[in-house]
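Most newcomers find our protein records easier to grasp once they have seen one. To make this concrete, we reproduce a full record directly below:

===
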Amino acid sequence: MTQRKVRIEDIVATFLDDGSMMVRSVSWGKGARLHPLMMGVLGLCSAPRTRQEVMSVMGMMGGQAFEELSEIGLLVDPEEREAGGEQMFNNFAGVAVHRRMLLDEVRMAAYRDAIAAVVKPGDVVIDAGAGTGALSVYAAKAGASKVYAVEHSEMAAMIPKVAHDSGVGDVIEVVKGNFAKVELPQKARVLITETFGMWGLAEGAAADLAQCAARNLEPDGVLVPGQLDLWMAPLGAMPDKVLTPFARRDDGLDLSSMAEDARHNGAVVKIEPEMLAGPGQKVASLGLTQSSFKATLELDVACEGLALWFDLHLAPGHILSTSPQSPDTHWHQSVVGVSLEAGRHDLVVDMAPDDRRAALLSFGGRPFRLR
């Protein structure tokens, strides 16, 4: 049977001076320099195609391009695309990334208390992006009769051991897969997730959570958290660690050509309250399945950067805040090096087209990336 191939997701192209194009998909960890004919094949393969089907439209050269794109990994089996890019999920497979989160006692306590307040005896619960299974254990101990711990990375193999050692091995069922794609054997009343990166938006889970909830959550089901508040405040100066590495050093190394890129890529920094040049402003309140919005930022002072943080409304009376005035979490705060005058500024926020884990903030068309 002739094999069908389909284009991978999140491909972005850059036109080069010689007429070729550089394409990449960060979420899949793939990229290549392509000639225009190959771009035509990629366009044709937005739906699964065989080599023969491509040749019927684009001739022998199209067939050769089909084979080359398959070898590069820009065309894949439909089932592989359906499973999603492994590169993104593999970032969460190691103990090191989870150590940082598990050491965050503010985070752990906030989720534990909120889950205890929301989960009722006998509930069916989904833990979307379960990681180590810690939140699944909390749900089971709160009285859930069944917890589906959905985890796509190799950490899924560890969850049964964690559940057994925590005394709830009979309640937690591990489902290895992308939570956007799974269809569980029963509907859940509660969906829990902790899939939040920089400014709460990085990791790009909103669309996937929407799919998971539509397939697996009861119509009156509860999301934990149910709301995400996004805040901004002006900085009088950028923290040293953000731009200082990209400057001329005393040993003669000069990295100043990278400083502008550094300004446009967000950094995670611990912001002390006295570093703020003005009060924080809540620019958006989003549901858990939202990620794009437009807002207005009003500044009383000029700034050389912005501090960003978020609040998670985990349950009524249970808010986990990452503000500079709150107990510190592993998220700290985020900063972007945008220079703004005092006054009104329009803000557009959306997920990056080339990387499902990155958010783009645009002020007057100037993009700043959070990942």
User: Anything to note?
Assistant: The radius of gyration is 23 Å. The chain has a mean pLDDT of 92. The longest helix spans residues 51-72.
